[in-house]
Amino acid sequence: MAPRKPSVMRPARDVAVVAFGQTDHLRTTDELSEVEMLMPVLHQVLAATGLRTSDIGFTCSGSCDYLAGRAFSFTMALDGVGAWPPISESHVEMDGAWALYEAWVKLQAGEADTALVYSYGKSSPGSVRDVLTRQLDPYYLAPLWPDSVALAALQAQALIDAGETDEPALAGVARRSRADATANSHAQLSGSVAQGEYVVRPLRTGDCPPVGDGAAAVILVAGERARDLCERPAWIRGIDHRVEAHGLGVRDLADSPSTRLAAERAGVFERPVDTAELHAPFTSQEIVLRKALRISDDVTVNPSGGALAANPMMAAGLIRIGEAAARIHRGASHRAVAHATSGPCLQQNLVALLEGDAR
Prior knowledge:
Elements: E1 15-22, H1 34-49, E2 58-62, H2 65-68, H3 74-81, E3 89-92, H4 96-108, E4 114-122, H5 128-131, H6 148-161, H7 167-180, E5 198-200, E6 203-204, E7 213-222, H8 225-229, E8 234-243, H9 257-266, E9 275-277, H10 283-292, E10 300-301, H11 316-329, E11 335-342, E12 348-355
Parallel strand pairs: 2-3, 2-4, 9-10, 9-11
Antiparallel strand pairs: 1-7, 1-8, 4-7, 5-6, 8-12, 11-12
Helix pairs in contact: 1-3, 4-11, 6-10, 7-10
């Protein structure tokens, strides 16, 4: 019997991104705490909508205690939000894109009509390549200490061996991304960036994301009120996330079936999109995602520069949704797909479909 085709998920309520803000992404922010880095962004999105903290029905954040080096570090960030009088609040130990998903579910359930979602990460204090080994299977992979770049290099080599790409094509992805980032004032890397030496073959320095610090925030609003707070809301028409097997040895690293399934459930394949913001920290991962999401050559991919221009851990995925929404807000896009990932070699993938009102 042929496998049943996944049905498209239809939201119960219309929910839109009405505001998006982010920091300038920097290699180091030693002089700032997470709260000090985050607060200007929170003020920015609230000011854009005219909302006050007391108007927010639900608050959700995404961050990683491993990066901060202390347990429950996210509770300190609540100082920047204002948790008194008591607020309805939650946290995910994930990229902020998954915090947005939790907030979206809260609004779908009718438990809130507005939500503030934020995420942040400071990768500069330690070796993020070593920190990310804690995501690996603790019995077979983690004891070998393969770092995130080495695992991404395995994926890149799998693509090359399958005839999906080559090193010059990967260099072209890097050049295009960082050239596009010249229009993004928040980008950490932009313009002409040399490919450099091999980090782990076949990946060179230019194929890898910069290490840096940053934060982002969005506001979600349900129903007609979204149009009162934003001239052109970015409606979330579908959103879904899926996960691959934990063991890398049982996966085809040249493909991403979880991204494809999430896109099907979100309704991405029903009609063409004009913009794609892909969370592809390594050049080779853009190749995988383009195939999984069936992105044609006429789609504008990562006009912000993507994660190759700025990759603040725990915020880069939320930024992809925010950048796609911002293009809809200003009329540069009508139907956009945004993608976020977490884990080695695109292990966990979230896909959101955003649309603007018909002109």
